[in-house]
Amino acid sequence: MKTRQYDVVFLGGGLSAALAAYRLKQLQPERKLLVLERGWTLGGNHIWSFHNTDIAPEQLQWMEPFLVRSWPKQTIRFPRFRRQIRTGYHSVTSDRLHDVASRLLGESVRTGTDVVSADANEVVLADGERITTDCVIDCRGALRDPVLEIGYQKFVGHEVETSAPHGVTEPVIMDATVPQHDGYRFVYLLPFSERHLLIEDTYYSDHSRLDTEDIGSRILEYRSEQGWGDANELRRESGVLPVALGGDIDAFWRNRRAESPCACAGLRAALFHPTTGYSLPDAVALADILARFTPLETAAVQQLIEKRSRHLWESRSFFRIVNRMLFVAARPDERWRILQRFYSLSNGLIDRFYSDRLTPYDKVRILVGRPPIPMWRAAKAIPESSLRRRPPIHGAPQDKLTS
Ligand SMILES: Cc1cc2nc3c(=O)[nH]c(=O)nc-3n(C[C@H](O)[C@H](O)[C@H](O)COP(=O)(O)OP(=O)(O)OC[C@H]3O[C@@H](n4cnc5c(N)ncnc54)[C@H](O)[C@@H]3O)c2cc1C
Predict the structure, then answer these.
(1) 110 closest CA partner among 9, 3, 16
(2) Residue nearest to ligand 1 atom 12, measured at CA
(3) 189 in any annotated domain
């Protein structure tokens, strides 16, 4: 058994850990870092995307090597209209995340390594090895804690190669012209090249059950309608992301502290956009903060991240109102109407919604106007207490977040 001394050890080598370790190594190359990932590569099997305005221009600069593809605009399709959003969009693949982060981090990355326990200064691996460090940051992915009430954005994606050019020239962020099913359904398309396409069938649903066969057959239907029936399938991915409806962030952090003295980051620290469930912009921002933070010690980093997570939870309460409109006020088959109205608003407002920079006027624009659902139901869903008047949608054994 070996014992080593590190400055920082990251548990898990997914998105948040890989970006934080990478940025820390860039800004403080003398630091002794270790990323412990149980899979054979960093990042698992994902494509992560984000809007150009979700992160600051300086952050986009250091993220550049991770981008496999960028587009200048996006398309939205609803039954009543189609439009372009003139905002750039970028994608990162797990392969690229692994290659770029491992190249800089070198021996600081250990894959195929299962962490079994950790406290503030020691990590224990499945083979019994003990590792000592000044700072432990647990980035082992989402934890489901019933003190936060959530709905789900879930999806299955097929990456395909079409036999002829597929004709999609920019990301289709939402094709909601498809038959509705299991809440709000839309198809998401990412054209990596003229024959290479990611097709994701997505649902804003009350439960997290993912029937991959059923969804797979809906993707096949969509493919044949679009003339891509004979496409070659290259890869599959699926996910169940949290959509925050309400909850008690104090209790969430009390529970984290009771479970473990380690700092945590990523989805484990509830750092995600409340409506889209996306966590890449929060992971980039935290990577930048950690890379400049001192002292890099577990207790100080834990306090820093907890404070940030609480602050973001409070400042993002408006998104939870919007989510309750979707999940509490609207019946599942009505959800598309709310989204259709939202996507008829201005390009700037949509950018500010994604990037968490809404102005008071934007918030009024989102809530006021001809309501796509009855006013009385919308009004009842605004306070967080409305959650107590509905059957719980969390806590069922199948309600697990996957990534
Ligand atoms: C398929 C999919 C697509 C997504 N697309 C987007 C997107 O486009 N944009 C966006 O912003 N967000 C997206 N998300 C949401 C979110 O960004 C991801 O879930 C993100 O990967 C979360 O980052 P994380 O670091 O918290 O956890 P993860 O990336 O899940 O990392 C956790 C890591 O910990 C490892 N691990 C777990 N237990 C142990 C252990 N005991 N020992 C060692 N290692 C362990 C896991 O193997 C994993 O690699 C997507 C999620 C999914 C599932």
Answers:
(1) 9
(2) 278
(3) no
pLDDT on residue 389: 55
CA dihedral 388, 391, 393, 396 (to 10 degrees): 120
Contact 121, 9 (CB under 8 A): no
**pTM higher than 0.90, yes or no?**
yes
Cross-sheet strand order for the sheet of 148-161: 82-85, 74-77, 172-175, 184-191, 196-205, 148-161, 232-247
The pLDDT tens digits for 87-127 are 999 999 999 999 999 999 999 999 999 999 999 999 999 99
Residue 156 lies inside a defined structural domain of this protein: no
Residue 382 lies inside a defined structural domain of this protein: no
Ligand 1 touching residue 237 (CB < 6 A): yes
CATH of residue 23's domain is 3.50.50.60
Phi, psi of 402, rounded to the nearest 5 degrees? -120, 150
Q: Among candidates 158, 188, 228, which has minimal Cα distance to 49?
A: 188
Whole-number Cα distances in Å, 3 to 11, 20, 59, 105, 123: 17, 24, 36, 20, 10
Task: Examine residue 170 and state whether it is found in any structural domain, yes or no.
Answer: no
Report, as ranges of residue numbers, the positions in the chain whose pLDDT lies below 70. 1-4, 370-382, 385-403
Q: How far is CA 69 from CA 20, 27, 170, 387, in A?
A: 22, 25, 11, 40
The two structure tokens encoding residue 252: 């969430």
Residue nearest to ligand 1 atom 31, measured at CA: 14
Q: How many Cβ atoms from other residues are within 10 Å of residue 379's Cβ?
A: 12
Helices (H), ranges, 106-174: none
Give phi and psi for 103, each to the nearest 5.
-60, -45
Could you list the residue range(s) of the whole structural domain that residue 254 is in? 5-69+90-146+247-315
Counting from 1 in the atom list of ligand 1, the atom nearest the Cα of 114 is 42
User: Structural domain tally of the chain?
Assistant: 1
229 alpha carbon to ligand 1 midpoint, in Å? 31
> Ligand 1 centroid vs 253 CA: distance in angstroms?
20
Q: Whose CA is nearest to atom 10 of ligand 1?
A: 278
DSSP 363: H
